[in-house]
Amino acid sequence: MWWLVLPVFGVTQVTLVTPLASEDYRSITKQFLDSWYCLDRPQQDGCWEKSGEETMSVTMRETMNEATSQAMSETGEGTNRRERANRDGFNWGTAIAMGLFHVGAVAALFFFTWPAFFAAIFLWWVSGSLGIGMSYHRLLTHRGYRTPKWVEYFLTWCATLALEGGPIFWVATHRIHHQFSDDEGDPHSPIDGKWWSHMGWILMGKSMHHDTTTLGRYVPDLTKDKVHVWLTKYHWTSNIVLGVILFAIGGLPWLLWGVFARVVVGLHSTWMVNSVTHLWGTRRFATKDLSTNNLLVALVTFGEGWHNNHHAHPVSARHGLKWYEIDMNWYGIWALKKLGLARHVYKVDLDRLPPKPALTRDVKAAVLAPAAGND
Known about the structure:
Layout: E1 13-17, H1 25-33, E2 55-59, H2 60-75, H3 81-88, H4 92-108, H5 114-141, H6 149-160, H7 167-179, H8 194-203, H9 212-218, H10 220-223, H11 226-233, H12 237-275, H13 295-300, H14 307-312, H15 328-338, E3 359-362, E4 367-370
Antiparallel strand pairs: 1-2, 3-4
Helix pairs in contact: 4-12, 5-6, 5-7, 5-12, 5-15, 6-11, 8-12
């Protein structure tokens, strides 16, 4: 599962449907994902379409820490991630595979044709927007909206084209990051270095290879789904099939641009969410991490660069909260809703949120300090 890489997340005020006492993370995750926010309603405790259970409003970080700190301490999953990676050593297989894809991407420059280029652009949108942004991230990880199962499976298949790993491992790593964002245990924080947050965490250690216990704790909803299990096991086959089709249509130029160049651009775009948006950008919300909003990253990731917005409201299917914050992934979800293929879509209405003082966090010192207010 060497291609696994993911965007990063943060903290929000949420309404969680579960009593915390004597409950483990498996039950919290299941109940949380079985609940949803409502479309076009004010943010309120009664917005959950779930009844008969206790509700409480807490930050997601506090909830996860309370529920899993003991288990994570016992397994070592949540501490000293980089030290453990250095001990586990260099991932030569991952490095060689990535190197070959980068060689193929450079070779594509010498086989340029406009049809191949436009085919790559289209497939970049399919894999990066329909796949990573709309499926792996906003649908499977956060359940910001729901779709019929056949739509969910199709979008997930599109995500496998990005070569960022199968859905189970992608979502598990992301949820682990979600718990420890920019703290010890975060798989890819710039606290451990800019290069580390971009791709060093993939080349070192075992951040992308989780044991059965970890998977059961973080993604019980997906490990029980036979289709997602199959897509995770055989996620690499989609690009083999696509490569054969592209070569049959347009020869080597279509193969190099539609697979190699497109995958490399998509990978670095996703990695920029992990690195760039935690280093440079603007902050609208007070989150306990380094997240920022970055226009450039938003453009190359179809909307994932509005990262501070997302850290503040991770369940929201909409990340671009202002009209000028371009969010292609949200436009796709909106289109699915209009077609009757998406329901229970949660989005944040910025005008209805109470004003909050913003916080900034110094990357080197890793401390919280007051900054400017909301925009």
